[in-house]
Amino acid sequence: MNVALIGLPRSGKTTVFDVLTGLAVPVQSHGVPAAEARGKHIGVIHIEDERVDGLSTIFSPKKTTYSEITLVDAPAVEHGDKGPVIDPEQLGALKTAEAFLHVLRAFHNPSVAHSRGTVDPLRDAQLVESELVSTDYVVAEKRLERMAKEHFEGPERNVLEKCREHLEREEPLRLLDLAEQDKAHIGGYSFASQKPMVLLANVDEDKVRGEPDTQLADYARSRGMGYTELSAEVEMEIGELEPEDAREFLREMGISEPARRKFIRVAYETMNLLSFFTVGTNEVRSWPVPAGTTAIQAAGHVHTDMARGFIRAEVVPCPDFLETGSFAEARKQHKMHVEWKDYLVQDGDVIYFRFNV
Prior knowledge:
Elements: E1 2-6, H1 13-21, E2 41-46, H2 50-59, E3 63-65, E4 68-73, H3 88-93, E5 99-106, H4 121-149, H5 155-168, H6 180-185, E6 197-203, H7 214-222, E7 226-230, H8 232-239, H9 243-253, H10 259-271, E8 273-278, E9 283-290, H11 295-302, H12 304-308, E10 310-317, H13 318-324, H14 327-332, E11 337-339, E12 349-355
Parallel strand pairs: 1-4, 1-5, 3-9, 5-6, 6-7
Antiparallel strand pairs: 2-4, 8-9, 10-11, 10-12
Helix pairs in contact: 1-8, 2-13, 4-5
C-alpha cells in the first residue's frame, strides 16, 4: 500500500510522518522540513499482526513478512492566501499513491503561525478537497474536449461524462458509484478525488483524552473519508520511551492505543482492505488485498504464475490453523475447505494455492 501525506504548511505533517514510520526527518523550528524544497521522504510501516506471529511460531520460517504501508511525505508548498493549496508539481508526484493521508492542523502554538492565519481544520479539509475536485474536473474536461474534436465515442467517454457531471457538483469521485468495469475505463487518469483518504487531525496535548471532533468526523463521513486524531507532540514523547514506560504513559494519558495502530486500523477500513496469509518453512507472509478479491486474483498477488496456472485454493481460517497446526491436520478435522477461482477471500484466510504452468 502506497499512502501519500498531504496537508498545508506547518500542519505538523512531517512530525506525523516521523511518528508513524519511526524515522526522524529534520524539521526546522517553523515546521518546514529542512530538506530541498522539492524533496520527499519515504518510510515503511510494518503492520504488526498477532496472527502472523502465531503462524511463524508454528513454521519457524526463514523469513516472516508483515503487510506494509509505504508512506510518502511530499513537502507542502507555501502559497499566498488566494493561491492554490496543492502545488501542481506536488500533485503530480502523488499520482502514484493508492490513498491520501491528509494531516490537518488542529493544535494551537503562537510560535508557529498557521499558513492561512487561523487554526481551522474544517476549513483546511474543505480547501484541499476542493482543490482535488477542481484538478480532476480540469483533467476530465480537457480529455472530453479532445474526444469531441476527434469524434471519439465509447465507454470511456461515457464514464468521463459521468465524472464531469459529478465533479461539477463539487463532489469527489470517491462518492460516485461506478461499476468495476467503469472504473477500469478511467483507471489511467489517476483521479485524485477518487482515491481513498483519511483525515488526521493533529490536536493539542490536552485534547487526546477527550472525544473526537464530531464536526470533523461528520465531515469526513459525509465525504467518504476515514477520520482519526493524534497529538504528534505527545506521540513523539511516547516514541522516545522504553516499551513498558510507554505503556504506562499511555495509561496515564488515557490513550487507548498508539497512534500508529489507530492509523493502520482506520486506513484498512477506509481502503476496504483485508489480509490473507501464505505459510511455509521458507516464509510466512501477510498479503493486504481489497475486500472482494477472488482466489485467482489473490494468487496473482503472490505470483503471476499462480494465477496463470490456477487449479484451486485450499483455505483454512487462521484461528483453525493456529489450533490444528497444519493443512493436513486441518483437512483431517474438516476445517479446511477447497475453493475455486471465484471464491471471495476472507480476512484471516490461510491459503495454499494449487497451480500448474
